[in-house]
Amino acid sequence: MSFILGVVIGITFGLAIIIAFVKSENARSKYRTELASGIAAFARMTVDDSRKIFTPEQHPSWVVFSNQQKLKWLNSHLEKIWPYVDEAASELVKSNVEPVLEQYRPVILASLKFSKFTLGTVAPQFTGISIIEDGSEGGITMELEMQWDGNPSIILDIKTYVGVALPVQVKNIGFTGIFRLIFRPLVDEFPCFGAVCYSLRQKKKLDFTLKVIGGDMTAIPGLSDAIEGTIRDAIEDSITWPVRKVIPILPGDYSDLELKPTGVLEVKLIQAKELTNKDLIGKSDPFAVLYVRPIRDRMKKSKIINNDLNPIWNEHFEFVVEDPLTQHLVVKIYDDEGLQSAELLGCAHIRLNELEPGKVKDIWLKLVKDLEIQRDQKNRGQVHLELLYCPIGMKNGLTNPFSQTETMTSLERVLKSGVEGKESSPNGGEISKRREVIVRGVLSVTVISADDLPPADIGGKADPYAVLIMKKAQIKNKTRVVNESLNPVWNQTFDFVVEDGLHDMLIVEVWDHDTFGKDFMGKCILTLTRVLMEGEYKDTFELSESKSGKLNLHLKWNPQPLYRDSQ
What we know:
Blueprint: H1 2-44, H2 47-53, H3 67-103, E1 109-118, E2 125-134, E3 139-148, E4 153-160, E5 165-186, E6 193-212, H4 223-238, E7 245-248, E8 263-273, E9 286-291, E10 300-301, E11 312-321, E12 328-335, E13 343-351, E14 361-366, E15 382-391, H5 410-415, E16 421-424, E17 430-433, E18 435-438, E19 441-451, E20 464-470, E21 475-478, E22 489-498, E23 505-514, E24 517-527, H6 529-534, E25 536-542, E26 550-559, E27 562-565
Antiparallel strand pairs: 1-4, 2-3, 3-5, 4-5, 5-6, 6-7, 8-11, 8-15, 9-10, 9-12, 12-13, 14-15, 16-17, 18-27, 19-22, 19-26, 20-21, 20-23, 23-24, 25-26
């Protein structure tokens, strides 16, 4: 009886402790949320709001300052403490940037280190300040716009493999950018936050010159460009957002604040059209460079398509994403010039927060001369992409895209989820067996009709027919000819055996039939991604390389996957 009583008392006491702990955590979480909301509300408070709260005697004199006066006050105090900031910041920047410099060190150099690093006597000037409420994360974010034309003393100690030592001075630095400070988490003890994260949110301008002390920079061809590229890569990879540095203020575990992958972006570079011709003889030889973060080991380059202003690439690329809310994909199209530097034909970008996770987005992006200046009236062409963003841990059959045991891209995992083989291990458990999966099947294409085709005959009519081509397999089929019509109706279905659905594409061309030849009227190019994921769909497609015209198609996919065990 005593045993039973003891058990009952113990269980009751344990439940009481659990309930008390849960209530305590809920109260603490509620307090932090209210604290974050309160601080954010104060940050948004105007002078008029403060006058309603405080009496004239209580009203602080600095509150009546305008934004410009507040920045002037902040800059004047920064100038006073700059000698101390310089000493601490110089060591901090040096310790963070130097390892990254070594990581991106040009192959022609044996070592690349700082022999001297101070930020000088000229303090930066703050030109703007803003507070961003971050209540859902329990923190406060502050952004400071800064301009700096300093007089730092920065000397790089460079050594080549032939034993030559070159002290290179970095001078004439001009910088404009926005720094982000994140105070998180908010706590109920002074100074009310556990850690500070800092990062370069936006780099608007970064200019500098390199000079060899007591020598000539041109003594080694290509050295200046290599070092400048290394410095820019090091800054991009060490401090530019989404990279952030965490400084603990109070004891605790702040690993959740560190930079971590949040997902993967799958990109299919399909084609471009109406590109600018930069060659005097022939046409441009375009290739594309794609990136989410502009550092060398994360930039992807397509193959070169020679002598073509409407290139078709149909290439896959995959990018790691750390912050889908602020990051974007950049595409730059260049004209290959052989041994000379490639010439930019145009560029475009798309924000990742415009993508719906787990859903393919088919998009044409207009090319511009400069991403910072969007008002470009000149037609530089367009680029065609398919985009798929897959967050880590997304519950739709996706697995961790960064696992070493994975061999498929994220797009392949969406299409092939559940095809991993399982084998019994000697101890009775299960082990994964990697399998190479070929997306094979039958594609049924129904060419329904076309609308508003351009006239091709003297009488203002045309005799159109459609040619269907599987690009990779080079299989062709064509419809019957519809005489004297700009809105032909075919309703013909064709079946194609597709051996590699992920990397093949369908091209539908419309031609005008003549007794002694044929005239091209337009075409549309389709990847098989959508029909692979949806199984079947009907849609209308505009004809490219044509003044007008639309094509109505119905596509259906009957999968016949092949599985081959990896060796």
